[in-house]
Amino acid sequence: MAGKKDTNKLAAFFAGFADTEESLDFRMADQVIADKIEVISTGSPGLDDALSCGGYPRGRLIQLYGAPGSGKSFLSMIAIKEAQKEEGTQQMFIDAEGTFSALWAETIGIDISRVIVIDGDMAVNGRKCFEMLLGTPKEDKQHILAGKSKDGLLDNIKNKTFNINMIVLDSLGAIQPPGEDVSAIGKMNMSLLARFLTTTMRKLSLEVKKANIPFIIINHKRDNMDPYGASDHTFSL
């Protein structure tokens, strides 16, 4: 059994690799074994039970994936309604598809005065959208990343500047990756979205964990996907 002295040595060792901008998390497994995952209910007792943890876990990326018309957007709206049970909170809906209906949201019981809707270029343009979420990296004189020159939304949620307890992105397939936004109409761009999301999702996963909120991403099931993107560009609820 490791003693307190050994634990202190390990903590000192790992601290030596942490820079001034971030702390390197270090805990022994027996300190977290009894930790209960914080969740926000899905709004469906059956789905809460099926997920085993009781709802959408905080600090995680959650994908609602299925065919158009299968109810993904509806599930996300019910989740927002559940998130509003926490007093004084706000929720964000990134409407990349341009289909958000305030009337529909109000009909199912959502307080729309607490929902922040991001649409237009900010929602569709992948570079702008994820820079807004993640912030702007800062480089030192050797062109090595050294923190951020501008904090993103998730940084502000982590720092309690904004009391947002859930973000929904509808949908991933409607995001326009860098390169496509400045290309000529009709130009074929191979695998731009896949290359963009490969690195961006890893960054997003870490920042969502720090912000400790559920980040729900709606994605569409496609019959096929060619190297230039989805063959079907019609987006439904």
Describe this structure in words.
This protein has a 5-stranded parallel β-sheet with strand order 3-9-8-4-5. A two-stranded antiparallel ribbon has the order 1-2. The protein has one domain (25-222): 3-Layer(aba) Sandwich (Rossmann fold). The relative contact order is 0.16. Helix 6 (126-134) runs parallel beside helix 8. With 237 residues, it is α/β, with parallel strands linked by helices. It has helices at residues 4-15, 45-50, 72-83, 102-107, 121-124, 126-134, 153-158, 192-211, and strands spanning 39-40, 56-57, 61-66, 90-95, 115-118, 135-139, 145-151, 164-170, 215-220, 225-226, 229-230. The chain contains 8 helices and 11 strands.
Summarize the structure.
The chain is an alpha/beta fold and 237 residues long. The chain has helices at residues 4-15, 45-50, 72-83, 102-107, 121-124, 126-134, 153-158, 192-211, and strands at 39-40, 56-57, 61-66, 90-95, 115-118, 135-139, 145-151, 164-170, 215-220, 225-226, 229-230. Helix content is 32%, strand content 21%.
Could you list some keywords that capture this structure?
about 240 residues, alpha/beta, Rossmann fold, five-stranded parallel sheet, 11 strands, about 30% helix
